[in-house]
Write a structure and sequence with these properties.
The complex is a heterodimer.
Chain A lengths: L17 E3 L2 E2 L1 E2 L10 H14 L9 H20 L8 E4 L2 H16 L5 E5 L8 H10 L2 E5 L9 H7 L6 E5 L11 H10 L3 E5 L3 H4 L4 H4 L3 E5 L10 E5 L1 H6 L10 E4 L4 E3 L13 H17 L1 H21 L3 E3 L8 E5 L5 H9 L3 E2 L1 E3 L4 H6 L5 E5 L6 H18 L2
Parallel strand pairs in A: 3-15, 5-6, 5-7, 7-8, 8-9
Antiparallel strand pairs in A: 1-2, 4-10, 9-10, 11-12, 13-14, 14-17, 16-17
Chain B lengths: L6 H8 L12 E6 L6 E8 L5 E9 L2 H14 L4 H5 L3 H8 L5 H19 L12
């Protein structure tokens, strides 16, 4: 299948917007959140206009329709990551909540004083802080697999660290700063051999790469809809069924119970067991529509397109003397860079005046920035709707930044 | 954009007159903007009358925060500690001579927050110094 990516921009109404007079939006911050195609917005509108009702217990028509739409969305999300069953997918608020769910339920139930949790130095705060909270509570140790100077994980160090028999290995499948794609299947295999539970932060990989969780064989996979053309407020946690069945529940309330008495409660079956309260129904339906949209293009095609733009961007930035961090191969469409003497905040501000949206700061990965001795970086990231023209706009904008500071 | 990055800001960012540390000092305080990681330290020397006889700032940050720090430090030398306590957001904006949106306002006000936290004493939570 040959997709003409230049035609996809028109699916996203916001990309036609002028952010300043004569300056059309050049959106280069999809790593933080992606734009939404019209059909995702339409799917949510249609739900609210025709089917809006609470789900799972209503016996009237629109409640049954809403329930069916919500569960169909779960089915779509499960198939998208090649999960064996829809029951493997729990809807959460976002990848952050998914990771917290694992730390607070599995971690609280099974980790004991002195146990070790293995993370990597390139984790987002959302895959560090939940573990730090549970570690403080249960007196656990956290160790970090080092990142090498080229932005890749130090797998030799990792193998040695496994000798200490960590109970959990939790790692990002794609760094939101370096763009590094980690060898998830290999990391998982080694962790399992050492007897550890494997958790993958797929917030960046699931939107940008074909991800087959059955093949990777990790125990958990966390991701967010809003980073893959879907709405905010909904994400997913994939988990292996035997683990989910054995785990205690997360939040308590409606929908997660089988029976409640004054003395106590019993839990509902997975996945309802982990979905207390009325969920984000419209958002789940939007998530399903986003998955349909991505499938209509093809994840292999999307990954190839983004990596082509990233490669072009890397060459163009380096040709203008800008230092891009991260590996030269096995990387996604993320370019974090530094310019001598000019702070990322100033770069982002001046680019905004040209309509170009980039991110400046530590991108919720402060420890990684400390490691590389960088207080902050500027990050341009790409998605299916970006083109080489957007890279050209960025390079032109950066020339303006240099001029501003060269007076 | 040319308004925001006025020459005075670029000039104070690239060639600050009051960058450095004072050791010993009478007041020293540091803090950061958690959103962007900008970090400012302010050191003061104060005589027995409470007059600031010397001041310096150090740290890292964007042109707005660093220029704001340099201009602010320049403006408080010779002032009394009590006068510093009454400095407001508007005083900083007047020094910079620019209008700022909510995000960049935090950059511009970080030096003043640090300075005020310093003169109020370490015990005072910096968040209580509501400048905005």
């Amino acid at each position: 299948m040959n997709i003409d990516f230049s035609t996809l921009k028109k699916d996203f109404p916001i990309l036609e917007r002028e952010v300043h007079p004569g300056k059309q939006l050049v959106y280069l911050d999809s790593t933080a959140s992606t734009q939404k195609p019209q059909l995702v917005l339409d799917a949510m509108d249609e739900y609210y206009q025709k089917h809006n009702a609470n789900i799972h217990r209503g016996v009237y028509t629109i409640s049954e329709e809403a329930t069916q739409m919500y569960e169909e969305a779960r089915e779509k999300v499960a198939k998208f990551i090649h999960a064996p069953s829809r029951r493997n997918v729990i809807f959460t608020r976002n990848a952050t909540e998914s990771l917290n769910l694992v730390a607070f339920t599995w971690g609280r139930a099974y980790l004991k004083k002195g146990d070790t949790i293995l993370l990597t130095e390139m984790e987002h705060h959302s895959n560090i802080v939940p573990w730090q909270i549970i570690a403080a509570e249960k007196e656990l140790k956290i160790e970090f697999i080092p990142v090498l100077a080229d932005g890749k994980l130090d797998l030799q160090a990792y193998e040695l660290m496994l000798n200490k028999k960590p109970k959990v290995v939790s790692f990002t499948h794609m760094s939101n700063v370096l763009g590094t794609i980690t060898p998830a299947k290999r990391i998982t295999e080694l962790a399992h051999q050492a007897g550890a539970l494997v958790v993958i932060d797929g917030a960046q990989s699931v939107p940008h790469l074909p991800v087959d969780i059955t093949d990777i064989d990790a125990d958990f996979l966390a991701f967010s809809a809003h980073k893959m053309c879907g709405p905010t407020g909904i994400g997913a946690l994939y988990g292996k069924l035997d683990i989910l069945n054995a785990m205690p529940p997360f939040l308590g309330g409606g929908d997660m119970i089988r029976k409640v008495t004054f003395e106590g409660f019993t839990t509902s079956d997975v996945p309802a067991k982990f979905e207390a309260g009325t969920p984000a129904i419209a958002e789940a339906i939007g998530f399903g529509a986003a998955v349909d949209y991505l499938n209509s293009i093809g994840m292999e095609e999307i990954a190839r397109h983004e990596q082509e733009i990233a490669k072009y961007g890397l060459e163009q930035l380096e040709a203008s003397g800008i230092k891009v961090i991260g590996p030269r191969e096995s990387r996604g469409g993320v370019l974090s860079f530094v310019m001598d003497e000019i702070h990322p905040h100033d770069i982002a501000q001046i680019l905004d005046s040209e309509g170009i949206a980039v991110r400046a700061g530590h991108h919720c990965a402060q420890p990684l920035h400390l490691k590389f001795g960088l207080p902050a970086t500027t990050r341009a990231s790409f998605y299916l709707y970006n083109s080489k023209d957007d890279v050209n706009s960025l390079v032109k904008g950066l020339d303006k930044v240099k001029q501003m500071f060269d007076r | 954009m040319d308004d925001l990055y006025r020459e005075i800001i670029i000039e104070h960012y690239k060639n600050p007159g009051f960058r450095g540390e004072l050791n010993p000092n009478d007041y020293s305080f540091e803090d950061e903007n958690p959103v962007c990681g900008d970090h400012i330290r302010v050191d003061l020397r104060v005589n027995s009358d409470g007059q600031i006889v010397d001041a310096r700032f150090s740290g890292e940050g964007c042109a707005i925060s660093q220029a704001s720090a340099d201009l602010l430090i320049e403006s408080v030398i010779g002032k009394n500690i009590e006068e510093v306590k009454s400095l407001s957001k508007q005083d900083v904006l007047d020094l910079l001579g620019i209008d700022l949106g909510v995000v960049r306002l935090k950059c511009a006000l970080l030096p003043l927050k640090v300075l005020k936290a310093g003169v109020y004493g370490m015990g005072k939570e910096i968040e209580e110094l509501d400048l905005e």
